[in-house]
Amino acid sequence: MESKVQVVIEEFPKKWKWLLFLGILNIIFGTLGVVFAEFVTITTTILFGVLMFVAGVVQLFHWFKEKEVTWSGRIPHLIFALLYIIGGAIAFFNPLTGASALTIVLASIFIVIGSLRIGLAFFLAKHGWRWFYHALMGVLAIFLGIYIIFQWPISSLWVIGLLVSIELILNGWQMVWVALMARKLAKELSK
User: Fold this and answer.
1) How far is Cα 101 from Cα 98, in angstroms, rounded to an integer?
2) What is the pTM for the complete model shown?
3) Does residue 10 lie within any of the structural domains?
């Protein structure tokens, strides 16, 4: 029994106060991000543009450097590099256009994921397994995707920032929970 407790204890961080602090900081920043979702959207789009541009330049450099003429993927590799460079430049220099395009992509992804979850729910129901949660999440994902599309282009001002901020809040709460559990286990061991 003692060995199982030791394994559980080792899974938790020893410096739980820092984790608690970081969790609270994430919650605060995520909440601010929800309030200022437009700012977070623009900032995220600019950063995404920079990353795409750099990735495209590195890919283009690889294309020129390697000169593998027998490689069948050489032309698509060049096309992807140029698309990354152009897309990155657009997102960086015109973040509203970049956010608008990313919003449509996100909405489409929500619809596809929702459809796949509903398909999974039918599969699970056919085999007598729990299916309701998957179906509900699928319907909600499709609804969210359709809502974002119907609100487009206005939704492109807040969707990305809101999603990034919600992720910060959820990550913060997870850190807080882990820190509190680590504190609780440390107190129990010290008794």
Assistant:
1) 5
2) 0.66
3) no
Phi-psi category of 45—alpha, beta or left, where left has phi over 0 and alpha has psi -120 to 50? alpha
pLDDT digits (tens, 9 = 90+) for 144-167: 889 989 998 888 888 888 888 888
Q: Is residue 80 part of a domain?
A: yes
The answer to whether residues 40 and 188 touch, using CB atoms and an 8 Å cutoff, is no
What are the two backbone dihedrals, phi and then psi, of residue 54, each rounded to the nearest 5 degrees? Answer: -60, -45
Q: Which two tokens stand for residue 180?
A: 């509190």
Instruction: Give the dihedral of Cα atoms 34, 38, 40, 46; nearest 10 deg.
Output: 160
Pinpoint the alpha helices (H) of the chain.
2-11, 16-35, 37-66, 74-93, 95-126, 132-151, 159-190
CA distances from 39 to 34, 159, 165, 178 (A): 10, 11, 11, 30
Q: Is 127 inside any structural domain?
A: yes
